[in-house]
Amino acid sequence: VQLQASGGGLVQPGGSLSLSCEASGNIFSIRVLGWYRQAPGKQRELVATSTRGGTTVYADSAKGRFTSSRDDAWSTFYLQMNSLKPEDTAVYYCNAVTYSGSVRDDYWGQGTEVTVSS
User: Three-state DSSP class for 86?
Assistant: First the structure.
C-alpha cells in the first residue's frame, strides 16, 4: 500500500483546510484508515481513524471540528478541518493498516504540513 497526502498549507485561526490522501496498491487489504499529526517537539498523535466496519474515532482535540471521510473504494480519504487553532499546527500523516492473519502492518504517507497562524 502506498499513500500520498496533500492539502496542507498556511491558514489563519478559525479557518478551514481539507487534507486528502490517495491510497494505491493493495487497497482491498486496508482495514483501518487514519490521520495522525506531529507537532514540533512532540510525539505523533492520533487525529482520527476509521474502520471498514464503519467506526470512526476522533481525538478529543478533533471532535466537533474535524471530519474524516473516504470514498467508497477506500482509495482516497479526507480530513476536513474547521475552526483551526494555532495548536493544530503540525505535520499531518495519513495511515493505513492491513492485517495478514494477526500480523498488523502500518503504512504512512509522507506527511503534509499545516500551519495555523495569523
Answer: helix
Alpha carbons 64 and 70: distance in angstroms, whole number? 18
Tell whether the model's pLDDT for residue 94 goes beyond 90. yes
Concatenating the DSSP letter of every residue in 25-70 gives SSGGGEEEEEEEEE-TTS--EEEEEEETTS-EEE-TTTTTTEEEEE
pLDDT digits (tens, 9 = 90+) for 57-84: 999 999 999 999 999 888 999 999 999 9
Cα Rg of the chain (Å, integer)? 14
- Rounded Cα–Cα distance for residues 31 and 52 (Å): 6
Which pLDDT does position 101 carry in this prediction? 86
Please state, in angstroms and rounded to a whole number, the distance separating the CA atoms of residues 69 and 80. 8
